[in-house]
Specification:
4 helices; seven-stranded mixed beta sheet; two-stranded antiparallel sheet; 186 residues; Rossmann fold; globular; disordered N terminus; alpha/beta; 15% helix
């Protein structure tokens, strides 16, 4: 897969984990990219035709997308102690990569709409051997994503492993769905 382009130039490729489960997301389903950074996953889903919500404390790196009527930019520092900025909304897909703030996990999981999917990938304990992040506050414990998602979501796939590309790292990743008949706990 090639890199995604932005007004600022080429972007990093979307995560292979995200791409793997993207086909489960209907093209008209709204996608929330949490802690979006430069928006590589939001841009990927937007290029597929999905409406996207890009959430980050600093949205300057996705400001080039502001003119797109099917893109919503939400500037919010999830770690500032304020309420979840999208409390009453749910999404057909919630994507989180390379980000962990445990107090927001309940809200992130609740943001998955009935029939929707959570695609999550971030660093796990053991990553300190490979560099940053090395602070245990930002590293998942063994099977932590499984524990956090169950029983509210049904796990489709889970991995807890060491990868070599794009750089050596210990990661956990999960794809979990909310059954269509269920309503999220708010």
């Amino acid at each position: 897969m090639s890199t995604v382009s932005s007004a600022a130039g080429p972007m990093a490729k979307p995560s292979e984990w995200v791409v793997r489960f993207a086909e489960r997301v209907p093209r008209d389903a709204e996608v929330l990219d949490v802690a979006c950074g430069a928006g590589r996953h939001g841009r990927f889903f937007r290029a597929r035709g999905n409406p996207v919500v890009l959430l980050d404390q600093d949205i300057s790196r996705v400001a080039d997308m502001a003119a797109d009527a099917r893109v919503e930019l939400v500037a919010s520092d999830l770690e500032a102690g304020r309420p979840w900025p999208l409390k009453s909304r749910t999404f057909g897909c919630v994507v989180v990569t390379n980000y962990l703030y445990r107090p927001a996990m309940r809200d992130i999981i609740a943001a998955v709409a009935p029939g929707g999917i959570l695609i999550y990938e971030t660093f796990a304990l053991g990553n300190e051997a490979y560099g940053r992040p090395s602070n245990p506050d930002f590293l998942l414990h063994r099977e932590e994503l499984l524990i956090l998602c169950r029983p509210e979501l049904r796990v489709v796939a889970f991995e807890d492993l060491t990868v070599s590309t794009p750089r050596p790292a210990c990661i956990q990743r999960i794809a979990a769905v909310r059954d269509a008949a269920e309503r999220p706990a708010l």
